[in-house]
Amino acid sequence: MQTNLNELFQNFIEKPSLFTKKEALSPTYLPSTPLHREKQIKQLGTILAPTLRNEHISNIMIFGWTGVGKTAVTKFVVNGLSTMAEKISAPIETIYINCKMEKINTEYRLLARVAEELGEKVPMTGLPTDRVYRTLFKTINRASAHIIIILDEIDSMDQASEGLYDLTRINYELTSGARTSIIGISNDLNFIDSIDSRVKSSFSGEELIFPPYNAIQLTDILKQRAEEAFLPATLQPGVIEKCAALAAQEHGDARRALNLLRVAAEIADRTGSEKIREIHVQAAEERIDTESISEVTRTLPKQTQTVLWSIFHLNEVKGEDLSTGNIYSHYSDTCRQIGLTPLTQRRVSDLISELDILGIITAKIISKGRYGRTREISLSLGNKHILKLNQILSEELFME
DNA sequence: CCTCCACCGGAACGTGAGGAGT
DNA sequence: ACTCCTCACGTTCCGGTGGAGG
Prior knowledge:
Blueprint: H1 2-14, H2 38-48, E1 59-63, H3 70-87, E2 92-98, H4 107-117, H5 129-143, E3 146-152, H6 161-173, E4 179-186, H7 191-194, H8 197-203, E5 205-209, H9 215-229, H10 239-249, H11 254-270, H12 278-299, H13 302-316, H14 324-338, H15 345-358, E6 361-367, E7 373-379, H16 383-398
Parallel strand pairs: 1-4, 1-5, 2-3, 3-4
Antiparallel strand pairs: 6-7
The structure holds a DNA duplex.
Protein backbone atom coordinates (compact mmCIF):
# COMPACT_ATOMS: atom_id res chain seq x y z
CA MET A 1 0.00 0.00 0.00
CA GLN A 2 2.69 2.37 1.08
CA THR A 3 4.82 1.73 -1.95
CA ASN A 4 1.85 1.86 -4.27
CA LEU A 5 0.94 5.27 -3.03
CA ASN A 6 4.47 6.51 -3.40
CA GLU A 7 4.57 5.19 -6.87
CA LEU A 8 1.32 6.89 -7.68
CA PHE A 9 2.57 10.25 -6.50
CA GLN A 10 5.89 9.73 -8.19
CA ASN A 11 4.21 8.96 -11.46
CA PHE A 12 2.04 11.98 -11.08
CA ILE A 13 4.99 14.27 -10.61
CA GLU A 14 6.96 12.79 -13.47
CA LYS A 15 4.16 12.65 -15.96
CA PRO A 16 4.11 15.86 -17.95
CA SER A 17 0.91 17.82 -17.38
CA LEU A 18 -1.20 18.84 -20.32
CA PHE A 19 -1.62 22.26 -18.79
CA THR A 20 0.91 25.01 -18.85
CA LYS A 21 -1.35 27.57 -17.23
CA LYS A 22 -4.63 26.23 -16.05
CA GLU A 23 -5.92 29.54 -14.67
CA ALA A 24 -6.33 30.81 -18.21
CA LEU A 25 -9.38 28.59 -18.48
CA SER A 26 -10.99 29.84 -15.31
CA PRO A 27 -14.09 31.94 -15.88
CA THR A 28 -12.71 34.68 -13.66
CA TYR A 29 -9.46 34.95 -15.57
CA LEU A 30 -9.12 38.27 -17.31
CA PRO A 31 -7.56 38.02 -20.75
CA SER A 32 -5.48 40.97 -21.90
CA THR A 33 -8.30 42.00 -24.23
CA PRO A 34 -11.82 40.62 -24.24
CA LEU A 35 -12.60 39.45 -27.76
CA HIS A 36 -15.68 40.36 -29.80
CA ARG A 37 -16.85 42.99 -27.36
CA GLU A 38 -15.32 46.04 -29.01
CA LYS A 39 -18.63 47.81 -29.27
CA GLN A 40 -19.51 47.32 -25.62
CA ILE A 41 -16.05 48.35 -24.49
CA LYS A 42 -16.35 51.55 -26.43
CA GLN A 43 -19.83 52.29 -25.16
CA LEU A 44 -18.92 51.75 -21.56
CA GLY A 45 -15.72 53.70 -21.95
CA THR A 46 -17.60 56.64 -23.45
CA ILE A 47 -20.02 56.72 -20.57
CA LEU A 48 -17.30 56.55 -17.95
CA ALA A 49 -14.81 58.93 -19.51
CA PRO A 50 -16.25 62.18 -18.09
CA THR A 51 -15.25 61.06 -14.60
CA LEU A 52 -11.68 61.82 -15.61
CA ARG A 53 -12.63 65.46 -15.82
CA ASN A 54 -14.50 65.14 -12.60
CA GLU A 55 -17.78 65.44 -14.41
CA HIS A 56 -20.92 63.73 -13.33
CA ILE A 57 -22.09 60.56 -15.07
CA SER A 58 -25.30 58.59 -14.80
CA ASN A 59 -25.71 55.15 -13.35
CA ILE A 60 -25.29 52.21 -15.69
CA MET A 61 -27.13 48.92 -15.98
CA ILE A 62 -25.59 46.07 -17.91
CA PHE A 63 -27.73 43.16 -19.06
CA GLY A 64 -27.00 39.83 -20.67
CA TRP A 65 -26.99 36.07 -20.17
CA THR A 66 -24.32 34.42 -18.08
CA GLY A 67 -20.96 34.09 -19.74
CA VAL A 68 -21.35 36.81 -22.35
CA GLY A 69 -18.51 38.90 -21.00
CA LYS A 70 -20.34 41.42 -18.82
CA THR A 71 -18.00 41.16 -15.88
CA ALA A 72 -14.87 40.81 -17.99
CA VAL A 73 -15.65 43.89 -20.06
CA THR A 74 -16.62 45.96 -17.05
CA LYS A 75 -13.46 45.08 -15.19
CA PHE A 76 -11.40 45.68 -18.28
CA VAL A 77 -12.80 49.14 -18.89
CA VAL A 78 -12.74 50.14 -15.24
CA ASN A 79 -9.14 48.99 -14.90
CA GLY A 80 -8.25 51.10 -17.88
CA LEU A 81 -10.02 54.03 -16.33
CA SER A 82 -8.16 53.61 -13.05
CA THR A 83 -4.75 53.54 -14.67
CA MET A 84 -5.56 56.66 -16.60
CA ALA A 85 -6.93 58.34 -13.49
CA GLU A 86 -3.75 57.55 -11.65
CA LYS A 87 -1.66 58.98 -14.42
CA ILE A 88 -3.41 62.32 -14.42
CA SER A 89 -4.16 62.05 -10.69
CA ALA A 90 -7.89 62.32 -11.03
CA PRO A 91 -9.69 61.28 -7.84
CA ILE A 92 -11.47 58.12 -8.94
CA GLU A 93 -12.02 55.08 -6.86
CA THR A 94 -13.65 51.87 -7.98
CA ILE A 95 -15.27 49.17 -5.93
CA TYR A 96 -16.24 45.75 -7.18
CA ILE A 97 -18.77 43.68 -5.28
CA ASN A 98 -20.29 40.41 -6.35
CA CYS A 99 -23.66 40.47 -4.65
CA LYS A 100 -24.49 36.82 -5.12
CA MET A 101 -21.22 35.31 -3.99
CA GLU A 102 -20.91 37.62 -1.03
CA LYS A 103 -24.56 37.17 -0.13
CA ILE A 104 -25.29 40.86 -0.22
CA ASN A 105 -29.05 40.70 -0.02
CA THR A 106 -30.07 43.36 2.44
CA GLU A 107 -29.75 47.09 2.72
CA TYR A 108 -27.55 46.75 5.77
CA ARG A 109 -25.07 44.41 4.11
CA LEU A 110 -24.78 46.46 0.97
CA LEU A 111 -23.98 49.62 2.89
CA ALA A 112 -21.63 47.79 5.24
CA ARG A 113 -19.82 46.16 2.35
CA VAL A 114 -19.28 49.43 0.50
CA ALA A 115 -18.06 51.11 3.68
CA GLU A 116 -15.67 48.27 4.29
CA GLU A 117 -14.30 48.60 0.80
CA LEU A 118 -13.55 52.24 1.56
CA GLY A 119 -11.55 51.26 4.59
CA GLU A 120 -14.19 51.76 7.24
CA LYS A 121 -14.73 48.84 9.56
CA VAL A 122 -18.39 48.05 10.03
CA PRO A 123 -19.54 45.02 12.04
CA MET A 124 -21.52 42.47 10.07
CA THR A 125 -24.50 42.90 12.34
CA GLY A 126 -25.58 44.72 15.46
CA LEU A 127 -25.86 48.34 14.39
CA PRO A 128 -28.98 50.18 13.30
CA THR A 129 -29.03 50.51 9.52
CA ASP A 130 -29.27 54.28 9.46
CA ARG A 131 -26.15 54.48 11.51
CA VAL A 132 -24.27 52.45 8.92
CA TYR A 133 -25.60 54.88 6.37
CA ARG A 134 -24.22 57.79 8.38
CA THR A 135 -20.74 56.23 8.62
CA LEU A 136 -20.75 55.44 4.94
CA PHE A 137 -21.83 58.98 4.16
CA LYS A 138 -19.05 60.46 6.25
CA THR A 139 -16.43 58.20 4.69
CA ILE A 140 -17.49 59.05 1.17
CA ASN A 141 -17.70 62.72 1.95
CA ARG A 142 -14.22 62.66 3.43
CA ALA A 143 -12.80 60.72 0.51
CA SER A 144 -14.06 63.46 -1.85
CA ALA A 145 -13.48 61.26 -4.85
CA HIS A 146 -15.68 59.94 -7.61
CA ILE A 147 -16.58 56.49 -6.40
CA ILE A 148 -17.70 53.95 -8.95
CA ILE A 149 -19.47 51.02 -7.38
CA ILE A 150 -19.79 47.90 -9.50
CA LEU A 151 -22.54 45.61 -8.28
CA ASP A 152 -22.26 42.29 -10.06
CA GLU A 153 -25.25 39.95 -10.09
CA ILE A 154 -27.31 42.77 -8.74
CA ASP A 155 -30.50 40.84 -9.42
CA SER A 156 -29.71 38.46 -6.59
CA MET A 157 -30.32 41.11 -3.96
CA ASP A 158 -34.02 41.68 -4.26
CA GLN A 159 -34.37 42.70 -0.62
CA ALA A 160 -31.69 45.32 -0.92
CA SER A 161 -33.34 47.78 -3.26
CA GLU A 162 -33.55 50.12 -0.31
CA GLY A 163 -29.77 50.03 -0.23
CA LEU A 164 -29.59 50.97 -3.90
CA TYR A 165 -31.79 53.91 -3.14
CA ASP A 166 -29.42 54.93 -0.34
CA LEU A 167 -26.42 54.78 -2.63
CA THR A 168 -28.06 57.06 -5.15
CA ARG A 169 -29.60 59.54 -2.76
CA ILE A 170 -26.26 59.92 -1.01
CA ASN A 171 -25.28 62.14 -3.94
CA TYR A 172 -27.79 64.77 -2.95
CA GLU A 173 -26.38 65.02 0.54
CA LEU A 174 -22.68 65.07 -0.19
CA THR A 175 -21.06 68.41 0.50
CA SER A 176 -17.50 67.82 -0.64
CA GLY A 177 -16.68 67.12 -4.26
CA ALA A 178 -17.45 63.45 -3.76
CA ARG A 179 -19.85 61.53 -5.97
CA THR A 180 -21.04 57.99 -6.35
CA SER A 181 -22.04 56.16 -9.50
CA ILE A 182 -23.30 52.65 -9.75
CA ILE A 183 -22.69 50.07 -12.43
CA GLY A 184 -25.19 47.25 -12.01
CA ILE A 185 -24.62 43.95 -13.77
CA SER A 186 -27.59 41.66 -14.17
CA ASN A 187 -28.51 38.40 -15.86
CA ASP A 188 -32.13 39.26 -15.62
CA LEU A 189 -33.58 41.71 -18.10
CA ASN A 190 -36.62 42.18 -15.92
CA PHE A 191 -34.60 43.25 -12.95
CA ILE A 192 -35.33 46.93 -13.45
CA ASP A 193 -39.06 46.27 -13.51
CA SER A 194 -38.94 44.23 -10.36
CA ILE A 195 -37.47 46.96 -8.17
CA ASP A 196 -39.35 49.62 -6.31
CA SER A 197 -40.50 52.49 -8.49
CA ARG A 198 -39.02 55.01 -6.09
CA VAL A 199 -35.62 53.34 -6.48
CA LYS A 200 -36.13 53.04 -10.19
CA SER A 201 -36.56 56.75 -10.71
CA SER A 202 -33.51 57.67 -8.69
CA PHE A 203 -31.44 54.90 -10.15
CA SER A 204 -32.26 55.14 -13.83
CA GLY A 205 -29.50 55.75 -16.29
CA GLU A 206 -27.78 54.18 -19.25
CA GLU A 207 -28.47 50.61 -20.26
CA LEU A 208 -26.10 48.31 -22.08
CA ILE A 209 -27.14 44.97 -23.46
CA PHE A 210 -24.65 42.21 -24.18
CA PRO A 211 -25.72 39.76 -26.88
CA PRO A 212 -24.73 36.08 -26.66
CA TYR A 213 -21.65 34.91 -28.50
CA ASN A 214 -22.10 32.79 -31.58
CA ALA A 215 -20.11 29.63 -32.23
CA ILE A 216 -17.46 31.38 -34.29
CA GLN A 217 -16.83 34.00 -31.63
CA LEU A 218 -16.66 31.32 -28.96
CA THR A 219 -14.09 29.51 -31.04
CA ASP A 220 -11.93 32.60 -31.10
CA ILE A 221 -12.24 33.07 -27.38
CA LEU A 222 -11.35 29.47 -26.67
CA LYS A 223 -8.36 29.64 -28.99
CA GLN A 224 -7.09 32.72 -27.21
CA ARG A 225 -7.32 31.00 -23.84
CA ALA A 226 -6.07 27.64 -25.07
CA GLU A 227 -2.91 29.26 -26.36
CA GLU A 228 -2.10 30.28 -22.82
CA ALA A 229 -3.39 27.21 -21.08
CA PHE A 230 -1.85 24.39 -23.09
CA LEU A 231 1.30 23.45 -24.86
CA PRO A 232 0.91 23.74 -28.60
CA ALA A 233 -0.44 20.63 -30.32
CA THR A 234 -2.13 19.24 -27.24
CA LEU A 235 -5.50 19.83 -28.81
CA GLN A 236 -6.77 17.61 -31.53
CA PRO A 237 -8.40 19.57 -34.31
CA GLY A 238 -12.12 19.89 -33.77
CA VAL A 239 -11.99 19.93 -30.00
CA ILE A 240 -12.34 23.67 -29.67
CA GLU A 241 -15.03 23.79 -32.30
CA LYS A 242 -16.95 21.12 -30.48
CA CYS A 243 -16.82 22.98 -27.18
CA ALA A 244 -17.89 26.17 -28.92
CA ALA A 245 -20.76 24.47 -30.68
CA LEU A 246 -22.08 22.89 -27.52
CA ALA A 247 -21.91 26.16 -25.62
CA ALA A 248 -23.44 28.13 -28.46
CA GLN A 249 -26.53 25.97 -28.24
CA GLU A 250 -27.00 27.26 -24.76
CA HIS A 251 -27.32 31.02 -25.20
CA GLY A 252 -23.68 31.46 -26.23
CA ASP A 253 -22.21 31.02 -22.80
CA ALA A 254 -18.43 31.45 -22.82
CA ARG A 255 -18.23 30.27 -19.25
CA ARG A 256 -19.71 26.95 -20.24
CA ALA A 257 -17.42 26.66 -23.22
CA LEU A 258 -14.38 27.21 -21.03
CA ASN A 259 -15.65 24.77 -18.47
CA LEU A 260 -16.11 22.12 -21.13
CA LEU A 261 -12.61 22.61 -22.37
CA ARG A 262 -11.11 22.56 -18.90
CA VAL A 263 -12.95 19.44 -17.77
CA ALA A 264 -12.19 17.70 -21.06
CA ALA A 265 -8.54 18.46 -20.50
CA GLU A 266 -8.70 17.18 -16.94
CA ILE A 267 -10.26 13.95 -18.09
CA ALA A 268 -7.64 13.55 -20.78
CA ASP A 269 -4.93 14.32 -18.27
CA ARG A 270 -6.20 11.81 -15.76
CA THR A 271 -6.61 9.01 -18.26
CA GLY A 272 -3.06 9.54 -19.40
CA SER A 273 -3.90 10.72 -22.86
CA GLU A 274 -1.37 13.02 -24.41
CA LYS A 275 -3.89 14.82 -26.48
CA ILE A 276 -7.33 16.17 -25.87
CA ARG A 277 -9.84 14.57 -28.17
CA GLU A 278 -13.48 15.00 -28.98
CA ILE A 279 -14.47 12.02 -26.86
CA HIS A 280 -13.09 13.85 -23.86
CA VAL A 281 -15.36 16.75 -24.60
CA GLN A 282 -18.32 14.42 -24.70
CA ALA A 283 -17.37 12.94 -21.37
CA ALA A 284 -16.92 16.42 -19.99
CA GLU A 285 -20.38 17.48 -21.02
CA GLU A 286 -21.98 14.63 -19.14
CA ARG A 287 -19.86 15.09 -16.12
CA ILE A 288 -20.49 18.81 -15.77
CA ASP A 289 -24.23 18.31 -15.78
CA THR A 290 -24.37 15.54 -13.22
CA GLU A 291 -21.78 17.06 -10.99
CA SER A 292 -23.33 20.44 -10.60
CA ILE A 293 -26.78 19.07 -9.97
CA SER A 294 -25.47 16.52 -7.49
CA GLU A 295 -23.61 19.19 -5.62
CA VAL A 296 -26.70 21.35 -5.41
CA THR A 297 -28.73 18.45 -4.09
CA ARG A 298 -26.16 17.49 -1.52
CA THR A 299 -26.00 20.99 -0.09
CA LEU A 300 -29.75 21.47 0.12
CA PRO A 301 -31.19 21.86 3.64
CA LYS A 302 -32.51 18.65 5.13
CA GLN A 303 -36.13 19.73 4.89
CA THR A 304 -35.82 20.56 1.22
CA GLN A 305 -34.09 17.24 0.61
CA THR A 306 -36.98 15.47 2.24
CA VAL A 307 -39.44 17.28 0.01
CA LEU A 308 -37.45 16.31 -3.05
CA TRP A 309 -37.23 12.73 -1.88
CA SER A 310 -41.00 12.63 -1.55
CA ILE A 311 -41.45 14.01 -5.03
CA PHE A 312 -39.18 11.35 -6.50
CA HIS A 313 -41.03 8.63 -4.66
CA LEU A 314 -44.49 9.76 -5.60
CA ASN A 315 -43.29 9.96 -9.16
CA GLU A 316 -42.53 6.25 -9.15
CA VAL A 317 -45.98 5.32 -7.93
CA LYS A 318 -48.09 5.58 -11.02
CA GLY A 319 -51.60 6.87 -10.78
CA GLU A 320 -50.62 9.42 -8.19
CA ASP A 321 -50.49 12.95 -9.48
CA LEU A 322 -47.76 15.20 -8.22
CA SER A 323 -49.76 17.93 -6.53
CA THR A 324 -48.81 19.98 -3.50
CA GLY A 325 -51.26 18.21 -1.20
CA ASN A 326 -50.06 14.77 -2.21
CA ILE A 327 -46.46 15.70 -1.81
CA TYR A 328 -47.13 17.28 1.53
CA SER A 329 -48.70 14.19 3.05
CA HIS A 330 -45.98 11.94 1.70
CA TYR A 331 -43.44 14.39 3.01
CA SER A 332 -44.95 14.40 6.50
CA ASP A 333 -44.80 10.61 6.59
CA THR A 334 -41.18 10.64 5.56
CA CYS A 335 -40.40 13.20 8.24
CA ARG A 336 -41.87 10.99 10.90
CA GLN A 337 -39.89 8.08 9.54
CA ILE A 338 -36.57 9.84 9.85
CA GLY A 339 -37.37 11.78 12.99
CA LEU A 340 -37.75 15.24 11.52
CA THR A 341 -40.50 17.63 12.60
CA PRO A 342 -42.64 18.37 9.57
CA LEU A 343 -43.01 21.97 8.48
CA THR A 344 -46.32 23.58 7.62
CA GLN A 345 -47.78 23.23 4.18
CA ARG A 346 -47.26 26.92 3.59
CA ARG A 347 -43.55 26.50 4.11
CA VAL A 348 -43.33 23.36 2.00
CA SER A 349 -45.07 25.26 -0.75
CA ASP A 350 -42.17 27.70 -0.69
CA LEU A 351 -39.64 24.89 -0.68
CA ILE A 352 -41.28 23.47 -3.79
CA SER A 353 -40.91 26.86 -5.45
CA GLU A 354 -37.25 26.87 -4.55
CA LEU A 355 -36.74 23.48 -6.16
CA ASP A 356 -38.47 24.86 -9.21
CA ILE A 357 -36.11 27.82 -9.36
CA LEU A 358 -33.14 25.48 -9.04
CA GLY A 359 -34.39 23.66 -12.12
CA ILE A 360 -34.67 20.26 -10.49
CA ILE A 361 -38.42 20.18 -10.90
CA THR A 362 -40.96 22.11 -12.92
CA ALA A 363 -44.00 23.40 -11.06
CA LYS A 364 -46.96 24.82 -12.90
CA ILE A 365 -50.11 26.13 -11.29
CA ILE A 366 -53.15 24.48 -12.77
CA SER A 367 -56.79 24.48 -11.90
CA LYS A 368 -58.75 21.27 -11.70
CA GLY A 369 -62.04 23.06 -11.40
CA ARG A 370 -64.22 21.56 -8.75
CA TYR A 371 -61.21 19.72 -7.44
CA GLY A 372 -59.29 22.84 -6.63
CA ARG A 373 -56.19 24.64 -7.71
CA THR A 374 -52.73 23.30 -7.19
CA ARG A 375 -49.27 23.07 -8.56
CA GLU A 376 -48.69 20.31 -11.02
CA ILE A 377 -45.14 19.14 -10.60
CA SER A 378 -43.04 17.31 -13.11
CA LEU A 379 -39.40 16.35 -13.07
CA SER A 380 -37.17 18.29 -15.39
CA LEU A 381 -34.29 15.83 -15.32
CA GLY A 382 -33.44 12.70 -17.22
CA ASN A 383 -33.70 9.26 -15.65
CA LYS A 384 -29.99 8.95 -15.17
CA HIS A 385 -29.86 12.10 -13.10
CA ILE A 386 -32.87 11.12 -11.04
CA LEU A 387 -31.28 7.81 -10.14
CA LYS A 388 -28.13 9.54 -9.05
CA LEU A 389 -30.00 12.12 -7.02
CA ASN A 390 -32.12 9.45 -5.40
CA GLN A 391 -28.98 7.73 -4.28
CA ILE A 392 -27.57 10.94 -2.85
CA LEU A 393 -30.80 11.70 -1.02
CA SER A 394 -31.05 8.28 0.57
CA GLU A 395 -27.48 8.65 1.77
CA GLU A 396 -28.15 12.09 3.16
CA LEU A 397 -31.46 11.30 4.80
CA PHE A 398 -31.29 7.72 5.98
CA MET A 399 -27.67 7.20 6.93
CA GLU A 400 -26.15 7.65 10.38
C1' DC B 1 -73.80 31.73 -14.59
C1' DC B 2 -72.56 30.64 -10.02
C1' DT B 3 -70.16 27.74 -6.54
C1' DC B 4 -66.73 26.04 -4.19
C1' DC B 5 -62.49 23.09 -3.96
C1' DA B 6 -57.58 22.97 -2.76
C1' DC B 7 -54.55 25.13 -2.83
C1' DC B 8 -51.60 29.94 -3.85
C1' DG B 9 -49.04 33.66 -2.03
C1' DG B 10 -48.78 38.23 0.61
C1' DA B 11 -48.08 40.03 5.23
C1' DA B 12 -47.32 40.20 9.97
C1' DC B 13 -45.30 38.13 13.60
C1' DG B 14 -42.18 34.85 16.59
C1' DT B 15 -37.81 32.82 17.79
C1' DG B 16 -33.15 32.27 18.43
C1' DA B 17 -28.44 33.15 16.90
C1' DG B 18 -24.89 36.63 16.26
C1' DG B 19 -23.44 41.01 17.71
C1' DA B 20 -22.92 46.32 19.37
C1' DG B 21 -22.98 49.70 22.79
C1' DT B 22 -23.39 51.51 27.44
C1' DA C 1 -25.87 42.83 32.72
C1' DC C 2 -28.98 44.79 29.92
C1' DT C 3 -31.06 46.88 25.87
C1' DC C 4 -31.16 47.25 21.19
C1' DC C 5 -29.70 45.86 16.46
C1' DT C 6 -30.05 42.52 11.99
C1' DC C 7 -31.43 38.36 9.80
C1' DA C 8 -32.60 33.47 8.59
C1' DC C 9 -36.17 30.47 8.91
C1' DG C 10 -40.81 29.34 10.27
C1' DT C 11 -45.65 29.90 11.64
C1' DT C 12 -50.32 31.97 11.64
C1' DC C 13 -53.78 34.21 9.36
C1' DC C 14 -56.20 35.16 5.45
C1' DG C 15 -57.84 37.13 1.09
C1' DG C 16 -57.60 35.41 -3.74
C1' DT C 17 -58.63 32.36 -7.77
C1' DG C 18 -59.30 29.15 -12.50
C1' DG C 19 -62.46 26.34 -13.99
C1' DA C 20 -65.39 21.52 -13.62
C1' DG C 21 -69.64 20.53 -12.20
C1' DG C 22 -74.11 21.63 -10.75
